[in-house]
Specification:
alpha+beta; 17% strand; globular
Length: 138
């Protein structure tokens, strides 16, 4: 189970991750990944002392939330899919940069998907979401 500090619970947190994050869909899941903004060395600096927020940003844990709609199935099926996804994300959350926000949305195909297939789909979607950020910067 994810620790309380690693879970998304407020709808505003979900909305921010879905609107501002990178979206990638693979098979039975769609992921929305928001990565923390790194300091840009090209920004002008002033002679005024600036408060150092790097310690605060680096201590923020990566967080995850799950969206499993009624289109996936009845309550038993939705909870089973949610439990599987929660465990898969728990194993992979440490690999994300500190302060990342991840929303995993299950598609109706997730109801019939096996645990290994969900793992493969999640890994592929995370890889695309992480790499597209680097590929688009020109």
């Amino acid at each position: 189970m994810l620790a309380a500090a690693q879970r998304l619970r407020r709808s505003t947190d979900f909305a921010a991750a879905v609107r501002g994050g990178r979206r990638a869909g693979r098979g039975a899941v769609v992921v929305h990944l928001t990565m923390p903004v790194s300091a840009d060395p090209s920004t002008p600096t002033s002679s005024q002392p600036v408060r150092d927020n790097s310690a605060e940003q680096s201590s923020a844990p990566s967080r995850a939330g799950f969206v499993v709609s009624k289109a996936v199935g009845n309550a038993v099926t939705r909870n089973q899919v949610r439990r599987r996804l929660r465990e898969l994300v728990r194993e992979r959350l440490a690999a994300l940069p500190e302060g990342s926000t991840l929303v995993v949305r299950a598609l109706p195909a997730a109801a019939e998907a096996s645990y290994p297939r969900l793992a493969t789909d999640l890994d592929a979607a995370l890889a695309v979401a992480r790499s597209s950020r680097e590929r688009r910067s020109r």
